[in-house]
């Protein structure tokens, strides 16, 4: 997702780590030179994308081409914001949990009227046209020649992935006499900055259904007439777990999330969400919604609906809302829809939550690959995340659905904004819930698939190729945050070189669509009618709202006190009874696990036949769930001790040794 646009589950952020940020981003620290040379300039770090190399340079962009940019404001105390966001999130700090209101945050860290006035005066004098102003940025338009003069750079065309895009040849600058009022500028490069949703959701104009047979809980129905897998008969995949099953295995107890507000961001908005959510709760044993418990905040109008596949986002919203309510049935849910899948619009949605403090917990099931990220957009995201941290708001992002991304992009990389040091990255598991809602085990989510042979006597090419799995790995651009020190093994943290870097995810929960969640949504049937229908779904698009729901339960356990940016508290509980330590071989080192799935070839009924496959669990590309921290599930999944651990005083009793969605 980057500066002009953003992508659905599958986003970006570069960012701070919990030792102070290095020069990767423009932190807008005010310069101590009010008497600066009037012609002096200060570089806006991060405005030149990593892909704009001399080898891919195709020469100058036409002077008359149009540029639309956002000039982000650093605020009155950028360094102070960074420092306070750390302190207020650290259970060992005296300032832990001493959050500010949205108004106090703006007064202490937001841009002053004088700063905004000075920035606008500079941009106008440079010949750019100001088209809008918010408390976070000023939008401008102009031609290339004017933009080059204003930002003291040259815009060239570059070859990127077989296409040509514009980008600055060197870092953009701002006048030094603005004293660091400008954080960064986005839009000088025009490569797509957009998000994709984590799972491959069926659009409402094409109904999707699962064929049976199913297990009602893990292993309840065995495929006894089909070939063996790993020395025994495999069970059929579950029909789709319910809230009751997830609450039991993740330790909800009697907690319901009462008094806690959870926000969900996606692009667009499902026109039938309220009706669908009410019907789903009624059919699946979840508590009914109280009046005003589910709200939508949507923009006045939408854009890029075709390019972004707007209808595909309806299922994402249905999944997110229904999963949060299933896990935390008394929490209030506010859905904040973006005008498109582009970064600018997703950033505006997140900004809306922070500026109005609409919730304490924010679930986000969208993102992009790190190679598409640019440091300027990452800086804009991180500023929002830090402002949220100061207010006691925590952001949860699904880690991705393509494992290490090699199969999908050819390059080992992580997803964004899940790579930000200021968000909780949520990885994925395959979950076995047994009889009586008992927790059996989890593996890392990673699937290899083989098809039943024509004669039904074997699995063709068993175990088959990798299809999907939880995103994870080591960032190439974000340094290691302090909360990961002593927990993340060096072989992961230093996977890209000598310097320890941000590793994802932080925590995990059920994501495998073969052990997935049942979701209900209005869809269009072959006869043209629109009807409510249910299907099983997965992806880290499921894991993120499940963890958001668990965090709502934990906040209730903490007496309603917001958990804020939770990573320091999550890592403080590492290697304790708060987590299930997930491994890919829970039944023994040499015992692999598989399930059988039967699907309609046409996704709706058996008129075109059935397709039977065997799905091996715990095979996530080059990533592996192992004892201790790992790059598939982070510190593990919440155990029954997790929620109640938040009833204790912060900083006591949890220490450790500091040594996308698919059917």
Polypeptide structure, described:
With 663 residues, the protein is an alpha+beta fold. It has a domain at 243-645: Rossmann fold. The protein is built from 14 helices and 31 strands. The strands form nine sheets. Strands 12, 13, 14, 15, 17, 19, 20 and 25 form an eight-stranded mixed β-sheet that branches. A four-stranded mixed β-sheet has the order 1-11-16-18. Strands 5-6-4-10 form a four-stranded antiparallel β-sheet. The radius of gyration is 24 Å and the shape is globular. The relative contact order is 0.17.
> What is the CATH level 1 assignment of the domain at 243-645?
Alpha Beta
Q: Using only CA atoms, what is the Rg?
A: 24 Å
Shape: globular
Extended strand count:
31
Low-confidence stretches: 1-36, 199-203, 651-661
CATH topology of the domain at 243-645: Rossmann fold
Alpha carbon gap, first and last residue: 23 Å
Please bin the fraction of helical residues: 10-25%
Global mean pLDDT? 90
Number of helices: 14
The CATH superfamily name of the domain at 243-645 is Peptidase S8/S53 domain
Alpha-beta content class: alpha+beta
Strand content: 25-35%
* CATH architecture assignment name of the domain at 243-645: 3-Layer(aba) Sandwich
Main sheet?
8 strands, mixed
Secondary-structure topology with pairs:
Layout: E1 8-9, E2 41-43, E3 57-60, E4 66-73, H1 78-89, H2 102-109, H3 113-125, E5 129-133, E6 137-143, H4 144-151, E7 155-160, E8 163-168, E9 173-175, E10 182-186, E11 196-197, H5 243-249, E12 261-267, H6 273-284, E13 294-297, H7 312-327, E14 332-338, H8 343-355, E15 361-364, E16 366-369, H9 375-391, E17 394-398, H10 406-409, E18 415-416, E19 424-433, E20 439-444, E21 446-452, E22 459-469, E23 473-479, H11 490-493, E24 501-504, E25 507-510, E26 517-524, E27 530-537, H12 540-557, H13 567-572, E28 579-580, E29 594-600, E30 610-616, E31 637-638, H14 640-645
Parallel strand pairs: 1-11, 12-14, 12-15, 13-14, 15-17, 17-19, 19-25
Antiparallel strand pairs: 2-9, 3-7, 4-6, 4-10, 5-6, 7-8, 11-16, 16-18, 19-20, 21-22, 21-30, 23-24, 26-27, 28-31, 29-30
Helix pairs in contact: 1-9, 5-7, 6-7, 7-12, 8-9
């Amino acid at each position: 997702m980057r500066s002009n646009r953003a992508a659905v589950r599958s986003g970006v952020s570069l960012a701070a780590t919990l030792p102070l940020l290095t020069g990767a981003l423009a932190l807008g620290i005010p310069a101590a030179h009010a008497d600066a040379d009037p012609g002096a300039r200060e570089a806006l770090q991060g405005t030149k994308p990593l892909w704009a190399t001399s080898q891919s340079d195709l020469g100058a962009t036409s002077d008359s081409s149009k540029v639309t940019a956002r000039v982000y404001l650093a605020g009155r105390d950028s360094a102070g914001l960074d420092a306070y966001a750390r302190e207020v999130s650290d259970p060992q700090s005296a300032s832990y949990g001493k959050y500010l209101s949205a108004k106090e945050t703006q007064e202490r860290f937001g841009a002053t009227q004088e700063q905004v006035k000075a920035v606008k005066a500079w941009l106008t004098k440079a010949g750019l046209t100001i088209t809008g102003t918010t408390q976070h940025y000023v939008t401008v338009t102009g031609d290339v020649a004017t933009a080059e003069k204003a930002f003291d750079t040259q815009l060239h065309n570059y070859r990127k992935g077989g296409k040509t895009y514009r980008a600055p040849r060197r870092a953009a600058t701002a006048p030094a006499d603005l004293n660091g009022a400008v954080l960064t500028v986005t839009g000088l490069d025009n490569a797509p900055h957009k998000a994709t949703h984590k799972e491959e959701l069926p659009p409402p104009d094409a109904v999707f259904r699962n064929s049976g047979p199913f297990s009602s809980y893990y292993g309840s129905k065995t495929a006894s007439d089909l070939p063996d897998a790993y020395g025994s008969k495999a069970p059929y995949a579950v029909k789709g777990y319910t809230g009751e099953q997830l609450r039991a295995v993740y330790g909800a107890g009697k907690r319901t999330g009462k008094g806690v507000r959870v926000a969900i961001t996606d692009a667009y908005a499902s026109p039938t969400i309220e009706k669908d959510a009410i019907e789903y709760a009624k059919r699946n044993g979840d508590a009914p919604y109280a009046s005003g418990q589910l709200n939508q905040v949507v923009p006045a109008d939408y854009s890029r609906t075709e390019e972004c596949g707007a209808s595909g986002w309806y299922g994402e919203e249905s999944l997110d809302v229904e999963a949060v309510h299933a896990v935390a049935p008394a929490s209030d849910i506010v859905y904040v829809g973006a005008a498109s899948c582009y970064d600018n619009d997703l950033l505006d949605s997140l900004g809306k939550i922070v500026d109005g403090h609409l919730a304490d917990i924010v679930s986000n099931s969208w993102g992009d690959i790190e190679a598409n990220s640019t440091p300027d957009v990452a800086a804009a995201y991180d500023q929002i995340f830090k402002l949220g941290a100061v207010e006691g708001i925590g952001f949860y992002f699904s880690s991705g659905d393509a494992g290490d991304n090699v199969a999908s992009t050819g390059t080992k990389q992580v997803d964004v904004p899940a790579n930000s040091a200021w968000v909780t990255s949520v990885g994925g598991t395959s979950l076995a819930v047994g009889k009586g809602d008992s927790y059996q085990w989890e593996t890392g989510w990673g699937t290899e698939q083989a098809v039943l042979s024509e004669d039904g006597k074997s699995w063709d090419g068993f175990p088959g190729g990798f299809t999907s799995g939880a995103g994870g790995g080591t960032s190439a651009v974000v340094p290691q945050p302090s909360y990961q020190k002593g927990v993340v093994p060096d072989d992961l943290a230093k996977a890209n070189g000598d310097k320890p870097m941000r590793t994802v995810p932080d925590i995990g929960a059920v994501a495998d669509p073969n052990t997935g969640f049942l979701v209900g949504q209005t869809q269009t049937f072959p006869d043209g009618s629109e009807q409510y229908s249910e299907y099983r779904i997965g992806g880290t698009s499921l894991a993120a709202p499940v963890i958001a729901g668990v965090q709502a339960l934990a906040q209730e356990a903490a007496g309603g006190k917001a958990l804020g940016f939770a990573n320091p508290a999550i890592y403080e509980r590492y290697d304790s009874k708060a987590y299930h330590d997930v491994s890919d071989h829970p039944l023994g080192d040499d015992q692999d696990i598989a399930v059988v799935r039967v699907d309609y070839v046409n996704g709706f009924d058996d008129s075109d036949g059935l397709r039977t496959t065997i799905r091996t669990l715990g095979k996530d590309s080059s990533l592996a769930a192992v004892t201790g921290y790992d790059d598939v599930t982070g510190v593990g999944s919440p155990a029954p001790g997790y929620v109640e651990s938040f009833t204790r005083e912060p900083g006591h009793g949890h220490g450790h040794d500091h040594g996308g969605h698919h059917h």
